[in-house]
Amino acid sequence: MLNKTGPHIKEIHITPIAIVDPPLLNAAGLHAPYALRTIVELVTDDGISGISEIPGTSAIDAALAESRALLIGKDVFQLNEIRQVLIDRFGTDSAAERGETPWDQRKLVHIFSAIEVACLDIIGKVTNRPVVDLLGGKLRDRVPFSAYLFYKYEGAGGKLAFGTDPDAQGWAAARQASALNPTEIVAQAKAMCAEFGFQSIKLKGGVFEPQQEVDAMFALHEAFGPDVPLRVDPNALWTVETSIKYGKQMEPILEYLEDPTRGQENMATVRKALKTPLATNMCTTSFDDIPNSIRIGAEDIILSDHHFWGGLRASITLSGICETFGRGLSMHSNSHLGISLAAMVHLGAALPKVPYALDTHYPWQSDEIITSGRFKFEEGAVLVPTEPGLGVELDREALARLHQNYLTCGLTKRDDEIEMQKVQPGWKFQSVRW
Ligand code: GKR
Ligand code: MG
């Protein structure tokens, strides 16, 4: 019997897009009115299309374009070979290339993820199976997400920037409001939970001095009661002493404390001093980081992200490591649309355990790029798509419009410091602040 091969990659389309993003604050500054994503579409020699979405920068897009020649003609099932040719060409990212910002700045991991997810989408279509089945099969029908609160300036983002749409209703109206103190954070949480039904809450911290953020956490605890798990993420801006001081204050109310301080050693020191579990998407972010993390006990929970752990299958490998070494595993996010959400949901459905509701920025976005429109959340959870592949199709009209946004907005990479300087001239990112 002949071994079957193919389908083979015939075309690779790389489209940078810019999506409306409100003026959200974080440790690195302020979100621009548009967040950048890159949409990758692979088309096979028999006309099957597979798609993926990753954080966009012109550097990642250029490297993706460079990989085109290596990938054209490859069998989409040969994911190991595809990964190997990319490594042979580009090497691997070093841990230092991640950078000090809350988001990951490595290039290659994003490329692996973009190509792998699009190939899995195609393999799913060829085999008539949802991606979750290619990851070992579904362990749950719905994947739970957490509310993700941000301090923010008033404003809707996009063309409106700091302006607001007077006709907006419900969450669309609440999303425009400022949130600069505990009362406004509670109002944001109530509006977001009312719309999406989230049952856990995360606050992005590292914006104001720690006591104000701790006060916001207590205000959330007061407003939502003891049954709603709470997390806060200062994105490593606190010293060890600050982390221990405020971590102790919040011990009675936190489900976990995310990246209070910078680096595995500092995290390990804080972890020893607190009863609250520590989570990270900053100090243990690659397989190279795992041995030291285990040796010194840097965190309790790794917040994976298939976009920068090198794809969905790599994330399954990570889940095995976490299980072996007693680490919890959950998911981290950045501003994103429905292709990324679909991939996160397939992965979330395949993980052996989902003890913590996953992060998503999705409520902050109003655009969409899939023909089925915006994903619905029920009681904070998303139903796992059952259609072949990712179960979502590219909306080509939206792709063209969002690509035009990209061309018009002039951004080529995320730089929250520059955006913040437009509001507070001279503002500087400090990797450790309090
Ligand atoms: O979108 O501002 C943001 C977040 O700070 C994001 O970039 C982080 O990567 O959500 C992320 C986190 O949990 O650190
Ligand atoms: Mg984080």
Automatic annotation (TrEMBL):
Pfam families: MR_MLE_C (PF13378), MR_MLE_N (PF02746). It comes from the Bacteria. Pathway: Carbohydrate acid metabolism; D-glucarate degradation; 2,5-dioxopentanoate from D-glucarate: step 1/2. Its EC number is 4.2.1.40. InterPro entries: DgoD-like (IPR034593), Enolase-like_C_sf (IPR036849), Enolase-like_N (IPR029017), Enolase_C-like (IPR029065), Mandelate_racemase_C (IPR013342), Mandelate_racemase_N_dom (IPR013341). It catalyses: D-glucarate = 5-dehydro-4-deoxy-D-glucarate + H2O. Coiled coil: none annotated. Residues 182-277 form the Mandelate racemase/muconate lactonizing enzyme C-terminal domain. It is an enzyme of class 4 (lyase). GO terms for molecular function: glucarate dehydratase activity; racemase and epimerase activity. SMART domains: MR_MLE. Signal peptide: none annotated. This is glucarate dehydratase.
